[in-house]
């Protein structure tokens, strides 16, 4: 077995700059047992994040109204993307009981990582809610969308008609983290909305953008979207235009 | 777009319209298919993407019947019925115009079954296959692969070596190369350098040092090209550099004077798919002219393409064609550019298109076989994402089979875990292991360099190998 000697300072500085698994040595040409078992454990965590359910008890504890999509299992959800974009049984009736036409609609969805919702979703949602209340925003009934894809935002938006909709979704897990969230923010979503209409903040987890930091950033973004009446590519273009004005 | 149409529109002699037989009887049941395109889809081994598109077989027996129909199609039938019509699609026109007519005339009456038997025949040499290759279209390569078992695909591809040349020679029999892929989630130059040193210490990097950038801007691409060119120059490494940004970003970087050896782009197998990637044939023609004019490498082959089954369907650009045939058409398009490297990123697309390890392994073997048959220097990114029902064991299986099949190169990533793209593929360790397991060596120029540093002796890693500290001491 070959282990790598304690790295000299010049190498240590390089190694410290990356999360990649380096200077890990070898057993013959293969990985050492320790490295291999770490990879096995990290992959197991990622797979469980994809295949497991967000506990209904958590949804209740957060006071969220649960909305179903047409994907009835995690396997359906992963294999057939269209199912996760459409509203499932009973969803419409539940949405009609929610607050109509709020200023800001918030929702969590498991996406590809239930672990991200369990670990960081609650923290982000409560921090964002506090931040928006402080700014006196009129909030909708908070939702949990089970087996949801990003475009389900347009279906829900068409019913609830919020000014701004922020959907917080579990990202596809990697081996470094399985607990990362993305927030998709859109101005006046409808069935005619497309991908470029959304502004995305991704990499929200403890080792990336911390949930508390993300909550402030999202609240600022929502303020700006409401002020300019635009999100996504239109908002970015408005930004560039403003930057040009300033330079003049 | 209209320029692309013009660029690709060479006159092509149309084969006479023939009556194609699209029926078969299997175990007392009759099956009838509506078109060549339909039967090619139904003949595939199970793939979730074909099911998603509604074009895969609806029963096992239907699949068996479809394979029988495909076996009896002639090569002429397949040329006359590309899965996307010539009038609608510049990829179809590029491939058709590239057919060597003299070679095609000799084989156009062969059935697909005859082509399969001929390829596998003991009397058929690598040279004979190479000579025949230019008479084939992508649909023919896909059709014959649909009649092959996994071991047929391994054994057949082994008979089709495709050699390319830059600072290193890739694809020689008895050699296995690797693309060193030192990605970083924020493109940090120190982190990238650390990953390069680790890879070199394991003998990785003879095909390419190629970074997938996190930030697709000209400034960043220029910086990463300088970083890799500096490492190559400082250690006098016989290899080449590449930063896998969009082709237009790379062209701006070339104009800005960046030291670029190899120019990269992802390809799709239909014009609509390429439109979704933001490319046209005209744009690729211009890119090739520019890398030959301004690139730092003095070699005839300077382009690199990545492909993968399912990207057309993912973009809603499949036009009713199956993902495997569309993949073969990527190689048909690649052929126009005489590329240095081409690889399928087979398991990256996700479970909607390749559901599990079994489907990923199958697709990887198909892609390598089809590419080599079309004369393209196929390597492979044997890989999977964490939402697919697959794991590192599947990656091991595919890489081992492909190494036995004579695959030109694999990716080399620290411990197989790409911390930028968040997927898993082959590690630096895997490249070294496959070489030692199967008696394969790095590219000859690179092997000499490794031996000079004392990292390799007689084609095996030395005790010194595996320590990145040798490059910082």
Question: Briefly, what is this?
Answer:
By secondary structure, chain A is of the alpha/beta class.
CATH superfamily of chain A: Ethanolamine ammonia-lyase light chain (EutC)
Q: What string gives the helices and strands of chain A in order? A: HHHEHHEHEHEEEHH
What oligomeric state best describes the polypeptide chains here? heterodimer
Largest sheet of chain A: 6 strands, mixed
CATH topology call of the largest domain in chain B: TIM Barrel
Give the DSSP E fraction of chain A (strand runs of 2 or more residues).
5-15%
Shape estimate of chain A? globular
Q: Termini distance of chain B? A: 53 Å
Q: What is the spatial order of strands in the main beta sheet of chain B?
A: 7-6-5-12
Structural classification of chain A: alpha/beta
Largest sheet of chain B: 4 strands, parallel
> What is the approximate shape of chain B?
globular
CATH superfamily of the largest domain in chain B: Aldolase class I
Characterise the protein shown here:
The complex is a heterodimer of chains A (248) and B (473). Chain A has helices at residues 9-15, 33-51, 56-61, 74-79, 91-96, 114-134, 152-160, 211-228, 232-247; strands spanning 65-68, 104-109, 143-146, 164-170, 181-187, 198-204. With 248 residues, chain A is of the alpha/beta class. In chain A, strands 1-3-2-4-5-6 form a 6-stranded mixed sheet, sandwiched between helices. In chain A, helix 6 (114-134) crosses helix 8. In chain A, 43% of the residues are buried. In chain B, the strands form 6 sheets. In chain B, strands 7-6-5-12 form a 4-stranded parallel sheet, with helices on one face. The longest helix of chain B is centred in the middle third of the chain and has 17 residues, at 218-234. The A-B interface holds A 2, 4-5, 7-8, 10-11, 13-26, 28-31, 35, 39, 42-43, 46-47, 49-50, 78-81, 112, 172-176, 178 and B 48, 52, 182, 184-185, 188, 190-195, 197-198, 202, 351-352, 355, 385-387, 391-392, 414-417, 419, 422-424, 427, 429, 432-433, 436, 461, 463, 466-469, 472-473.
